[in-house]
Automatic annotation (TrEMBL):
Signal peptide: none
HAMAP family tied to this protein: EPSP_synth (MF_00210)
Reactions performed catalytically: 3-phosphoshikimate + phosphoenolpyruvate = 5-O-(1-carboxyvinyl)-3-phosphoshikimate + phosphate
Organism expressing this protein natively: Halarcobacter bivalviorum
Gene name tied to this protein: aroA
GO cellular component: cytoplasm
Protein name as annotated: 3-phosphoshikimate 1-carboxyvinyltransferase
Amino acid sequence: METFNIKKLSKPFNIEIDSIASDKSISHRCAMFSLFSNETSYIKNYLTAEDTLNTLSIVEQLGAKITRNGSTVEITPTDKLTEPKDILDCGNSGTAMRLFCGLLASIDGAFTLTGDKYLRERPMKRVADPLRSIGANIDGREKGNKAPLFIRGVKELKPFTYHSPVDSAQVKSAMILAALRANGISKYKENELTRDHTERMLTGMGAKLEIDNEGFINIHPLEGHLKPLNITVPTDPSSGFFFAVAAAITKDSRVVIKNVSLNPTRIEAYQVLKRMGAEVNFIEKENIYEPIGDIEVKYKELNGVVVEDNISWLIDELPALSIAMSVANGKSLVKNAKELRVKESDRIEAVVSNLKKCGVTYTEFEDGYEIIGGTLNKASIDSHGDHRIAMSFAIAGTLCDMEINDVECILTSFPNFKEILDSLY
Ligand SMILES: O=C(O)C1=C[C@@H](OP(=O)(O)O)[C@@H](O)[C@H](O)C1
Ligand SMILES: C=C(OP(=O)(O)O)C(=O)O
């Protein structure tokens, strides 16, 4: 198990970063959605991290021809997806497993989806149940709730009207992918909008998706193929956020995160940092499926904050925000974030147990935590095998030294994280 020994920063930093990891959500979708075309898709800045490379391998196992040169990827689909000769390994990625369930449910063949020990403990019922109700053939451990999952593709899925009890872009995307091959118009609704890359990208490729006046997304089945993708994947705002927090907690520091997605469903954590008192500026430069530009974050003394709305817009950034909350003036509260318990780790438990080691005062709730701001002390951190926990506490180390154990998980989303962190010194 690899360990990072992070040292306290001895001086402020002022840095523009253009090498932060590419967007993970968009990269997964590029690989998968290219299968809906009959022409080659061209993708620049594909995220070359474990999660998204696994997705690319699965797409290859399904018969697509992949040419990769670093982060430039060309994907040429076959006429008909082929039944793979082996299991499909999603590694650590919930996004891959859940979206592939929807994509494969109506493909002729047998498919086994599995993953690492963390993914095999995450709930899959949320996609398996609604997919089964429209005719999909999906089973797995614990009555079909846990991977390995076994799918036997059916000829036709029924169109559906589904109001999801869980606000999840992965569930929404799985159902949209299934609906593209149903035999009529399907309708999907969520209580609060979750990240909408799937809707934006598929619409851009020519799929017919529209929102009706009751808030249902109406998904029309495909009539033939979609246009191929020609896309440069923007920087991942969730990966950039670690350095936003670093700047916000380090006196006199500034960071600019370049060419990042400014999709409103992805930048809510930056808005929270702004509400806490940091100076945050969004500079929109272009719009390719979604707004893209730079985010500048400058240190200012931080104050406590309540985070209880738009939770799905900042769910992945809550561990990093907990570091900012720990050094802010006064109390901070995170509520309505029960979903944190079913991520790569139980992120509520992982955050508070590590904050406890750092001497931070907190109260744990089923759906969040309260943190009393003060100082962070050096500790030996357990990443729980979760990339976001490892990187969040590595950022805390810039204030007080920190030992972070079991850091290999960082490779799932942000392979050059440590290199960029080292460049702040
Ligand atoms: O669709 C996606 O790309 C993602 C959706 C979110 O998960 P949920 O759908 O479980 O909320 C998020 O936490 C995950 O990192 C990526
Ligand atoms: C939750 C995450 O990803 P996934 O659900 O795809 O494993 C994440 O990257 O924080």
